Amino acid sequence: MSVRQQVFNHLYETVERYGYGRYDGPILESAEIYEAKSGQEIADQQLYSLTDRGGRRLALRPEMTPSVARMIAGNAGSLQFPVRWYSHVNCHRYERPQRGRTREHWQLNVDIFGSDNPNCEIEIFELIHDVMNSLGATRDMWLLRVGDRAILNSVLRDVVKVPESAHQQTMALIDRWEKVPTEKLREDAAEFGLDGRMFDLLESTLRSGAEVLPDLPQEVRETSALARVMKSEAKDLFVFDPFIVRGLQYYTSTVFEVFDRSPANNRSLFGGGRYGDLAGLFTTQRIPGIGFGMGDVTLHDFLDTHGLLPEAKTEVDVTVIPVDDDLVPASREVARRLRQARIRTSTTLEPRKLGKELARADRSGARYAVIVGRDEWQRQAVVLRDLEGKAQHEIELTDVVAHLTERLAAPGA
Amino acid sequence: MSVRQQVFNHLYETVERYGYGRYDGPILESAEIYEAKSGQEIADQQLYSLTDRGGRRLALRPEMTPSVARMIAGNAGSLQFPVRWYSHVNCHRYERPQRGRTREHWQLNVDIFGSDNPNCEIEIFELIHDVMNSLGATRDMWLLRVGDRAILNSVLRDVVKVPESAHQQTMALIDRWEKVPTEKLREDAAEFGLDGRMFDLLESTLRSGAEVLPDLPQEVRETSALARVMKSEAKDLFVFDPFIVRGLQYYTSTVFEVFDRSPANNRSLFGGGRYGDLAGLFTTQRIPGIGFGMGDVTLHDFLDTHGLLPEAKTEVDVTVIPVDDDLVPASREVARRLRQARIRTSTTLEPRKLGKELARADRSGARYAVIVGRDEWQRQAVVLRDLEGKAQHEIELTDVVAHLTERLAAPGA
Question: Label partner for B87 (CA 20 to 30 A): which of A5, A301, B71, B113?
Answer without folding.
Answer: A301
